[in-house]
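Ticket #4471: structure export looks truncated?
Reporter: QA, pipeline team
Priority: medium

Steps to reproduce: submit the single chain below to the structure queue and open the exported record.
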Amino acid sequence: MDGENGATPVITARNLRKMYGPHLALDDVNLDIPPGAVGILGPNGAGKSTLFKCLLGLITTTSGEATVLGYDIRT
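Actual output as written to the record:
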C-alpha cells in the first residue's frame, strides 16, 4: 500500500493489540509510517514503548499484524 506521498510505508500495523494479563496495553493500533517520518507522542502509559517493543519483535502481540521494512514482525 502506498502512503500519502506515494512512498511505500516503512512501518505498517493493522489491528495491533497487546494484553498483559487482564491489562490492555495496545488496542487495535492501525498506522502507516512513511519514510522520513519521525516521532511518537503520547502521555505516560499510552503504549508508546509497548508499540516499539512489538515492532522490534522484543515482545509478541496478542493479535493483529505489522511489518517493518516489509518484514512481518512475527518472523
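Status: closed, not a bug. The export was complete when the record was re-opened. Leaving a note from the reviewer for reference: The helical segments are 48-55.
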